[in-house]
Structures are given as structure tokens and as C-alpha cells.
Design a protein that fits this description.
The protein is mostly helical. The protein contains 11 helices and 4 strands; from the N terminus they run ααββαααααααββαα.
């Protein structure tokens, strides 16, 4: 497999786009596509790796045969540990190695195309603005955003809590960010500031006012509708929404 054959990013912006695409694909594997990812990581198979692609797709495959490879290789043999530990711990471990691989690929491009000190620093700062895959998978990113929001905007948090309590009798309907905004017109400016700290449980990106979001009634994580393939029309008919991760949770053999 030649994961670097499609194109070679040469500028800081191009490398960052490459990073974001690969990161999004790997986050999908470990969150919304976790059931499929789990099944593909069969411990009976040979050493397997998780690859992310600039197109935001992911793949579990054998490592590249060429030595040295076209790009740095991700962690080898992730499938062997699958049944030897709790699933959440295994996914967290894969997430940590995935973060390390993404950084190595990004700075491989930087070294290959002669990024100077200022370029490397700018690239790292751009990358550092995004939550790590580990933070997204473990929910740490959401907790950090909440902590930051509670310190910087306590009054906004209070208004959100009050409005949420007021809407609880209608709790049989799934919570959506758009519906929530309609209920909180009186706090529109404060609400927008706080939601800016909300991260999608699938892709890890921030909330934007013009996007449809939906909240899982089990884990209470928010998701872009497009990330979990839920439209506003479909959400109207869902009494209790469960995200892909919560829907797929079951006892492992």
C-alpha cells in the first residue's frame, strides 16, 4: 500500500490540510465507525496498522513492504492487543499511537520540503489548536472545553443549565443544537460563545451556528448531523438518539 502516492503537500497550509484529513479519518475509525474498525482488527490476522488518508477515510491494512517506506508507518500490530484489554483502553492506546503517527507524517513533509524554524512552529501551532485523537476518543476534549467555558463564561453556563432543566419534560425527543437555540433566543449571544467551545464527538471540530447538531441521550456528546448521518427531518422522528458508539456497545467475547 502506498499511502503517500496521491500527492505531496509542500506548504504549511497544505501539510495542515493533509493532517486534518488523516486525523478526521482516524477519528471516524475510533468513534462513528468503531464497530467496523473493531471487527477488522482480528487478532488472528498478521500485524495490522490503522491508516488515515487526506480524503478523511481510514483503512486497516498490513504495513508497507518497501524499506524505507514512502511515509512514516503507524503503530504495528494494533490487532494483537484487541482482546487482551478493555475495549475503551485499547481504543485509547490506538488513539495515542495515531496521534504520534500524524505528527511524524506532518513533520516528515516539513523536513522533506525544507520548512524553516518559523514554518515548523506555525505548523505545530495550527496542529495544536485541534484536540488530539486521544482527547476526542476519551472525551477529554469535551471536558477541557467545559472547564474552560465554566471559568470564562459562568453566567452563560448558568443560563444553559436553567434552559435545559426547563426543557426536560420534552425529553422524549432527542436534543438538537438548532432546537436548543430556538428555545434560548433570549441568551443568543451568550449561547453562541459557549457553543463555540463545544466539540463534535465524531470529528472533534468546534460548533458553528449554521450547522445542524444532535446530542446523544446516553453519553450526552454532541455531533454534527453530517458526521452521524442524521438530518433535521430525521431527528424529528427520533424519540431517543443514541450515537454510533453507544449503539454499538455490547459485551465483547
Amino acid at each position: 500500500m502506498d499511502v503517500g502516492a496521491q500527492y505531496n503537500p509542500r506548504t504549511v497550509e497544505e501539510v495542515f490540510r493533509d493532517f486534518k484529513g488523516r486525523r478526521a479519518g482516524m477519528i471516524k475509525a475510533l468513534t462513528t465507525d468503531v464497530e467496523e474498525f473493531y471487527q477488522q482488527c482480528d487478532p488472528e490476522k498478521e500485524n495490522l496498522c490503522l491508516y488515515g488518508f487526506p480524503s478523511e477515510q481510514w483503512e486497516v491494512n498490513l504495513p508497507a513492504e518497501e524499506v524505507p517506506p514512502e511515509l512514516p508507518e503507524p503503530a504495528l500490530g494494533i490487532n494483537f492487543a484487541r482482546d487482551g484489554m478493555q475495549e475503551k483502553d485499547w481504543l485509547s492506546l490506538v488513539a495515542v499511537h495515531s496521534d504520534a503517527w500524524l505528527l511524524s507524517v506532518a513533520f516528515y513533509f516539513g523536513a522533506r520540503f525544507g520548512f524553516d524554524k518559523a514554518d515548523r512552529k506555525r505548523l505545530f501551532n495550527m496542529i495544536n489548536e485541534l484536540p488530539t485523537i486521544f482527547e476526542v476518543v476519551t472525551g477529554t476534549a469535551k471536558k477541557q472545553a467545559k472547564d474552560k467555558s465554566s471559568v470564562s463564561n459562568h453566567s452563560s453556563n448558568k443560563s444553559k443549565t436553567n434552559s435545559k432543566r426547563g426543557s426536560e419534560p420534552q425529553g422524549r425527543y432527542p436534543k438538537t443544537m438548532q432546537a436548543k437555540e430556538e428555545e434560548e433566543d433570549g441568551f443568543e449571544e451568550e449561547d453562541e460563545e459557549e457553543h463555540g467551545e463545544t466539540l463534535c464527538g465524531a470529528c472533534g471540530e468546534n460548533y458553528a451556528a449554521d450547522e445542524f447538531w444532535i446530542c446523544c441521550d446516553v453519553c450526552e456528546k454532541w455531533f454534527h448531523g453530517k458526521c452521524v448521518k442524521i438530518t433535521p427531518a430525521r431527528a424529528e422522528h427520533i424519540k431517543q438518539y443514541k450515537c454510533p458508539s453507544c449503539s454499538n456497545k455490547r459485551a465483547r467475547p
